[in-house]
Design a protein that fits this description.
Layout (H helix, E strand, L loop, with lengths): L21 H18 L4 H22 L6 H7 L8 H24 L8 H13 L7 E3 L5 E3 L11 E2 L2 E2 L6 H12 L7 H18 L6 H15 L10 H7 L1 H11 L15 H25 L2 H17 L7 H11 L1 E2 L4 H5 L3 H13 L3 E3 L8 E3 L6 H4 L6 H4 L5
Antiparallel strand pairs: 1-2, 3-4, 5-7, 6-7
């Protein structure tokens, strides 16, 4: 790789923001509005239960973008430490499990943070992800076919070429990452719409820097999720950018590649890279996000969601797996968040023993979970992955959902 081709000065990454952002501001405002609607849907306990389902879905799509398919039911099994005996399938399960673990721990970490653009946080994401990955996924081959062992959280020390894009020189990564942090830090941007546009623009620019030997795509998507959380536009975990990017995978990669291009002429901004294609990437990213918020808002319409739960209960009753009175418990849990075990007789209209049996069936099916280990603790609604096609249809691809019947 010719030394002359390597980027060594951070101005090579300009512009950091699109120079013409009128349409982008409108998209950012729409995303902000939709996210607020999601945040206001249902009670906090139910929102948390839905967000718990979104985490493995997020893992499924982020890994799918990388060409790694793990069936949702295998992800569910992995989260219960139930791994396949097939080595390749087990590796993919461990990869998906790692993503879910990091996604969850990331949310906890962000409760005490107010900026996602630091190298410290980006490095933490990479280290946390690969610390949970099997050793087979830590070995990367260079252009000569030699094995290089990836060190979790460490910057790459070799040069990389991704398609037609040659990433900045490894020895210059520190100055590029400092330029990245200084340029996008939310502490320096008071305009909330500009901060949302920053999430879109920084998604490409971080991928462009390519700070790690491997795992950049997954880390960049986790980073964008984190930035959305800090800006409070994640709908409290009720939508996923990874799903939006995955369902338009070809367009996603095309938009990324185009935004790598240098400025075409004097009408294409004033930086080294194309302003036109940065605008197009940001537009694609924000429209993908809006599409996902609209999708989730449609799934969470109370009347339609209640109707799907009733149809699901009818199916399970027909199968002989739960009792028809279960619907009253699930509806109560859906809209109130928690249900006292003492209320089971009232809700079902059955005797204490029968009501307890109905509740036990729902606990066994994991449609309810205990709030704590205390005997009389309330129960809360839960949404197992295997039932997603019935309750939240189209979360996963149609052909995949067809194989998820329990």
């Amino acid at each position: 790789m010719s030394e002359l081709k390597l980027y060594r000065v951070p101005s090579s990454m300009t512009p950091l923001f699109p120079e013409k952002d009128g349409e982008l501001r409108e998209l950012a405002a729409e995303l902000l509005k939709n996210s607020a609607k999601l945040t206001g849907s249902f009670n906090p306990v139910t929102r948390l239960a839905i967000a718990k389902l979104i985490e493995p879905m997020n893992s499924y799509y982020s890994n799918l973008i990388e060409g790694h398919f793990t069936h949702p039911l295998d992800i569910e099994k992995a989260l219960k430490k139930d791994y396949s005996k097939e080595p390749k399938k087990k590796l993919l399960q461990l990869e998906s499990q790692a993503h879910v673990i990091v996604n969850h721990s990331m949310k906890e970490k962000l409760t005490s943070m107010d900026d996602a653009y630091t190298w410290e946080f980006i490095s933490w994401l990479h280290k946390s992800f690969y610390d949970h990955m099997p050793i087979e996924f830590r070995t990367v081959k260079d252009k000569g076919g030699n094995d290089i062992l990836l060190v979790p959280g460490n910057k790459r020390i070799t040069e990389v070429e991704v398609g037609n894009h040659i990433a900045p020189a490894a020895e210059s990564l520190d100055v590029f990452l400092k330029f990245f942090e200084d340029g996008y830090s939310r502490k320096k941007i008071s305009d909330p719409l500009q901060r949302i546009i920053a999430i879109a623009a920084s998604h490409h620019r971080l991928a462009w820097i390519h700070p790690f030997l491997d795992g950049n795509g997954r880390v960049v998507r986790l980073f964008s999720e984190a930035a959305c959380i800090i800006e409070k536009i994640d709908g409290e975990g009720l939508w996923s950018i990874s799903r939006g990017l995955a369902v338009n995978n070809k367009d996603y990669y095309s938009a990324l590649r185009n935004a790598d291009m240098k400025r075409w002429n004097d009408y294409d901004g004033h930086g080294n890279l194309s302003d036109k294609f940065l605008i197009e990437f940001c537009s694609f990213f924000l429209k993908s996000a809006i599409d996902q918020t609209n999708f989730m808002l449609s799934l969470l319409e109370p009347e339609k969601l209640t109707s799907r739960i009733k149809e699901f209960v009818d199916l399970m009753v027909t199968r002989g797996e739960i009792r028809k009175e279960s619907i009253y418990i699930l509806e109560e849990a859906l809209f109130k968040g928690k249900v006292s075990k003492g209320d089971m007789e009232r809700l079902t209209g059955k005797s204490e023993n029968l009501a307890r049996g109905i509740m036990k069936d729902l606990l066994d099916k994991e449609l309810l979970v205990n709030e704590s280990s205390e005997l009389r603790s309330p129960v809360m609604i839960n949404f197992p992955i295997r039932y997603a096609p019935y309750i939240f249809p189209k979360l996963f691809p149609k052909d995949v959902e067809a194989t998820m019947g329990d």
